[in-house]
Amino acid sequence: MVFPDSAARNRPSARAATAQVLAPYALVREYLKHGLSVGRWPPGALMPSDSELVAQFGVSRMTVTRALRELQTDGLVTRVQGLGTYAAHLAQVSSSLTIRDLHEEITARGHRHHARVHLSRQQRATAGLAGQLGLAPGAPVFHTLIVHFEDDVALQCEDRFVNPRCAPNYLKTDFTKITPTHYLLQVAPLWEAQYSIEAGAPRVREARLLGIPGDEPCLIIVRRTVNRDIPITLARLVHPGSRYRVQGQFKP
């Protein structure tokens, strides 16, 4: 898709052609969305002002406002009155699911988070795993197995595979001091995520590491994240049902 610039505004035929493809507000929205996807504005960066977009696209301020409002609803930008529009940190997957750092979640409740690393190594990707991470079968992949605690209670067993291309220093990181989620959001901000959530029994090793019976119901989240079409990580997060609760707030 070609977006208008200062030269294109002086070519009425080109402008008419793009207008036939997208409504004016959608053209502005897709221009900004494309820029975010290719890293033109990294997380936290100040984006073009409303006035700049009005001049660039030759549209009304109301049109620009609608485009930015839709991007804000999708969690892609943050609007601060009097300051401007900023590229959002793309941890937000949708209006109903936000990827939160477990450390922040625990400390927000006034409790202490600590982690115990049971596995941190490089290994060869199986065919199935390679397909999930965009690697060739047998290619190197990073693997960590970590149990997270709230105070002294095991709250989550995190079994994670990471694409070395996205985080080459992953295995050099001390995950007793920073969580993998926090680290990966710093070095490879996600653009897309797929996830599944289910209730089920833990695997034998997960039950042992969490200190729970093998038949205890657990909340199991499997999450795959992508940065600009490059898979970052595949993680299985297991939470004992008796210890973990998903909380949120909704206002109509």
Walkthrough of the structure:
The protein is α+β, with helices and mostly antiparallel strands. The chain folds into two domains: 8-87, Arc Repressor Mutant, subunit A (Orthogonal Bundle); 102-240, Chorismate lyase-like (Chorismate lyase), CATH 3.40.1410.10. The chain contains eight helices and eight strands, in the order ααααββαβαββαβαββ. It has helices at 12-21, 24-37, 50-57, 61-73, 102-108, 127-133, 180-187, 204-210; strands at 77-80, 84-87, 113-124, 140-150, 153-162, 192-200, 218-227, 230-240. The strands form two sheets. The chain has a six-stranded antiparallel β-sheet with strand order 3-4-5-8-7-6. β1 (77-80) and β2 form a beta hairpin. α2 crosses α4. Mean pLDDT is 84; it is low at 6-19 and 91-97.
Could you provide a short overview of the structure?
29% of the residues lie in helices and 28% in strands. It contains 8 helices and 8 strands, in the order ααααββαβαββαβαββ.
At CATH level 2, the architecture of the largest domain is 3-Layer(aba) Sandwich
CATH class of the largest domain: Alpha Beta
Please give the oligomerization state of what you see: single chain
Total separate domains: 2
Per CATH, what is the topology of the largest domain?
Chorismate lyase
Shape: elongated
Count the DSSP helices. Answer: 8
User: Major sheet, described briefly?
Assistant: 6 strands, antiparallel
Total beta strand runs: 8
Would you spell out the secondary-structure blueprint of this structure?
Elements: H1 12-21, H2 24-37, H3 50-57, H4 61-73, E1 77-80, E2 84-87, H5 102-108, E3 113-124, H6 127-133, E4 140-150, E5 153-162, H7 180-187, E6 192-200, H8 204-210, E7 218-227, E8 230-240
Antiparallel strand pairs: 1-2, 3-4, 4-5, 5-8, 6-7, 7-8
